[in-house]
Design a protein that fits this description.
Distance between the termini: 57 Å
CATH superfamily: MetI-like
Order of helices and strands: HHHHHHHH
Radius of gyration: 22 Å
Number of domains: 1
CATH class: Mainly Alpha
CATH architecture: Orthogonal Bundle
Number of helices: 8
Structural class: mainly alpha
Largest sheet: none
Length: about 220
């Protein structure tokens, strides 16, 4: 083994634990918190958009249009670097959570809305025939069926979010990619360190993909 390769191997061995720690301490929590809050927003937005309250539906549609029509990185920059100019200063982690939450909320609301609309009108009519209100029909009849449809794409969205958290490095969140950049600045081995970070992301996403497949099998049994 050449001295160069020996040095690279030594760097990769010593950088693995810091990268993994950053992933578990920042990347994963950032993704989970943003996803949970985003799904809550998505559910509200989806319900509002299928309601007959036009002003609220229009506002929800405008929110989805803005978030889906602008780059996530630009949104993070506006929140972290732009808001201080009008007196609103937020911590980097908080800024990341807000940015990713708004993104998840917009994209997932379309998934949830489509899942609700995919349930046949006959289900609504049957619920009303049993004396249920619209809210009861939605809660007890429509949503259980819509959830089965929405779970696979929502799980895919979460896996994508885990990878997207690497954008938080641009606003100084010390997640995994930011740590990889810091180590690269000291060692001048970008190819190997970024590849190592990519492999850890791949590991995380592979575990999530496995859990997704198990979840889909479980939901399929109840169809």
């Amino acid at each position: 083994m050449t001295d160069r390769m020996a040095r690279v191997v030594d760097i990769l061995i010593h950088s693995f634990v810091p990268l993994l720690k950053a992933g578990l301490a920042f990347t994963v929590p950032l993704a989970i918190i943003s996803f949970v809050l985003g799904i809550a927003i998505a559910f509200i937005v989806a319900i509002v958009r299928i309601s007959h309250i036009k002003p609220l539906a229009a506002f929800a549609g405008f929110y989805v249009w803005i978030i889906r029509g602008t780059p996530l990185l630009v949104q993070l920059f506006i929140i972290f670097y732009g808001l201080p100019s009008i007196g609103i200063t937020l911590d980097a982690m908080v800024s990341g959570i807000i940015g990713f939450t708004l993104s998840v909320g917009a994209y997932s609301s379309e998934t949830i809305r489509a899942a609700i609309l995919s349930v046949s009108k006959g289900q609504w009519e049957a619920a009303h025939a049993l004396g249920m209100s619209k809210g009861q029909a939605l809660r007890h009849v429509i949503l259980p069926q819509a959830i089965r449809v929405a779970v696979p794409p929502l799980a895919n969205s979460f896996i994508s979010l885990v990878k997207d958290t690497s954008l938080a490095a641009a606003i100084t969140v010390t997640e995994m990619f930011q740590v990889a950049q810091q180590i690269t600045a000291r060692t001048y081995e970008p190819l190997w360190l970024y590849s190592e970070a990519a492999l850890i992301y791949l590991l995380f996403c592979s575990v999530l993909a496995y859990l997704q497949s198990r979840m889909e099998v479980r939901f399929a049994k109840h169809l």
